[in-house]
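Now for one protein, fold included:
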Amino acid sequence: MPVNRVNNPEFTSAYLAKVEKQAIKNGFGSVDAYLKSLVKKDGEKHRPKENAFKRAKLNRLKNIYKTSKGQILHGDSLDWLHSPKNANSVDLLMTSPPFGLITKKAYGNENSEDYCAWFRQFAEGFSKALKDDGSLVIDISGSWIKGHPVRSLYHFDLLQMLCKEYGFYLCQEHYWWNPGTMPSPAAWVTIERSRVKDAVNCIWWLSKSPRPKASNLEILNPYSTKMEAVLKNGIKSGTRPSGHQVTQNFNKDNGGAIPSNLLAIANTESNGVYFDFCKRYEIPIHPARFPQSLPEYFIKFLTKKGDLVVDPFGGSSITGYVAEKLGRKWRSIEMKHEYAFGGIGRFMDKKPYKSLVTKYAIHSPCSVIIKEK
């Protein structure tokens, strides 16, 4: 579990004050985070880019948009996460932080080599703000080692850090497959043809306790044609060659099929109320939006109506918009003013919320037979 403030008779008040001063100087918001950063593998870098304590004081959160259920806030989410008034208040932290990529993006991503060091201040804040039965869901993309067709391990390092140092449990990993992904990286996929296109994001579902609030009855999929036939005609009980016991319980209609942890969701949104709003006010469209079906899945799965959903890297406020439509309380916190303001466009859509229903086929490997020349 997270380490508490040092309470050791060998540490005098004067010495502890020196440690705290050093923590702030090195960019950590507390002694806790600073001491955690010292417990590291040889050679691992922990160099925060900025002084988190000073930044939180300078960037007080400003309300950009408000409804009866939630707010878009402009500023540093560390201020909100570390505030005592928000401790143990959040049912779901659903977010997609800036990825650790090779090249810099407009939304301000971090270098993959320094990613864990930068993320520590947020990890501590997540632990403070989250309820004991709440969930932390992080959508995170992998990255490549610069100049080589091999992968970075930064997102796995992040997962290890969150569990081993901050006491989170990995409830279940999910994988978001985006069928509309363009073939990339081009150097390895379309030119050298030594890799396949990178179309899957890892999604870490974490919690502070082994049994967070969750119900898969809220996210059922339609039954397959084969399962509908089983429900209609019945199934023969017995032991299958795999060793699985099949009973008459398989004939029970539960209203739908239990989904898998592979989420097939295209991210091809290119028009709509949000885009119209941004164009009208000449606001840059956020380049790293995720589709509404992604937060919808986890909000339905892990929360109930009236629960609090928070996105500390709010972007275009799609998480807040979906939470609003599903009857949850919410906060969307975004550092860049233009993106925070653009998020208002989401809420200009006054139509009743409608889930996006799509079907995708996953082909078996080597489905195309290449004729020999």
